[in-house]
UniProtKB/TrEMBL annotation:
Membrane topology, record value: Single-pass type II membrane protein
InterPro entries reported in the protein's UniProt record: FucosylTrfase_pln, GDP-Fuc_O-FucTrfase
Keyword 4Fe-4S among UniProt keywords: no
Keyword annotations from UniProtKB, A to Z: Carbohydrate metabolism, Fucose metabolism, Glycoprotein, Glycosyltransferase, Membrane, Signal-anchor, Transferase, Transmembrane, Transmembrane helix
Pathway annotation: Glycan metabolism
Coiled coil: none
Organism: Camelina sativa
Name of protein: O-fucosyltransferase family protein
Similarity section: Belongs to the glycosyltransferase GT106 family.
Length: 351
């Protein structure tokens, strides 16, 4: 949500367009219909963006009843010019619904558009006061110091990856199959190629092995920044016993009332303020957390290499030999406290 919003701001500046507060299409992820104002401080956002772009809460009455002209650049490959590609549609229809290109290099925007995007990402977007209060309450409840671990092994994540895992429990297998729909897993040689490309999420047991290879003590306080329904956690919590979750730390009545995206916002807040952040995946959450931690000069951020794990285990390494090899892969990043793939955080910081 943050990434797409920042993209929208930068592109609105490029096109000299007015930005209407977005209505998030989150049903596909969270089975809900929460809006911008449920998570972010609307008035603060509009105030901070003043002078960069104009932001309005609602459409003007003369076009409110019209359907926007849809412009979808999400599948566009390579570099292209938004002004050349999109501005004609905006000028013709006056009102467009825009989906940015996923692969577009934002550091190639003109300086004025980059400045606007950075203003949005690092200054203008903050949680609502009530949600920030809840986030601070959660942060205060976690024993210090602590490591925030973004662990992705929920049924929908595994189903989406199209990976298969041996030796899962019957309940985990059933949950994954229910989430697969038409995304059938790769098999045979294709499955091995997919796994070696680093496309398969680390299991909790594999994550334990990775953390041990980095000599992270089993007594470490770990906050699980994860969605509901994490599978196969027994092996993890039997080794790392000081594991904390928002479902346990927060008032149960408050927690059950929360939507999926407000829970994700809490994980984000805790993760950008944790003593260390470790991610088993490299998705949107991890990129924006890493960028914000860099901005805050909190560099204890590490991304575990799924590709290295797959390559090493395919060679038959296990036990002490596997841990030693994993340490060799991660030791430089671990020593300086930065992930191997920090996002293109192009805003100019004095680091």
């Amino acid at each position: 949500m943050r990434r797409d919003l920042c993209d929208g701001v930068g592109i609105a500046r490029l096109l000299n367009a007015t930005l209407v507060l977005p209505k998030f299409e989150v049903a596909a992820y969270w089975n809900e219909s929460s809006g911008f104002a449920d998570v972010f401080d609307v008035d603060y956002f509009i105030q901070k963006m003043s002078g960069c772009i104009e932001v309005v809460k609602e459409l003007p009455k003369d076009i409110a009843s019209k359907e926007p002209f849809k412009v979808d650049c999400s599948k566009r490959k390579g570099q292209f010019d938004y002004i050349e590609s999109v501005l004609p549609s905006l000028l013709e229809h006056h009102y467009i619904s825009f989906t940015p290109a996923m692969s577009q290099r934002r550091d190639r925007y003109p300086e004025y558009a980059r400045a606007t995007l950075c203003q949005a990402c690092y200054s203008a977007i903050r949680l609502t006061s009530s949600l920030e209060k809840k986030a601070i309450e959660l942060l205060d409840a976690i024993p210090k110091p602590f490591l925030s671990l973004h662990l992705r092994f929920e049924p929908d994540m595994v189903a989406y990856s199209q990976c298969e895992y041996p030796n899962l429990s019957p309940s985990s297998i059933a949950a994954i199959e229910a989430a697969r729909v038409d995304r059938k897993p790769w098999t045979g040689e294709l499955a091995q190629i997919w796994r070696k490309r680093g496309k398969c999420p680390l299991t909790p047991n594999e994550t334990v092995l990775m953390l041990q290879s980095l000599n992270i003590p089993t007594s470490t306080n770990i906050y699980l920044a994860a969605g509901d329904g994490l599978m196969e956690m027994e092996g993890f919590t039997s080794v790392y016993t000081n594991v904390f979750t928002k479902s346990v730390l927060l008032n149960q009545e408050d927690f059950t009332r929360m939507h999926g995206n407000t829970k994700a916002a809490l994980d984000y807040y805790v993760s950008i303020n944790s003593d260390a952040y470790v991610a088993t995946y490299f998705g949107n959450m991890d990129k924006i957390v890493a960028a914000m931690r860099t901005y805050k000069r909190m560099h204890n951020t590490l991304f575990l290499s799924r590709k290295a794990f797959a390559e090493l285990t395919s060679k038959g390494l296990e036990g002490v030999a596997l841990k030693k090899a994993l340490w060799e892969v991660h030791k430089n990043d671990f020593a300086i406290g930065r992930g191997f793939a920090l996002p293109d955080c192009f805003c100019e910081f004095e680091l």
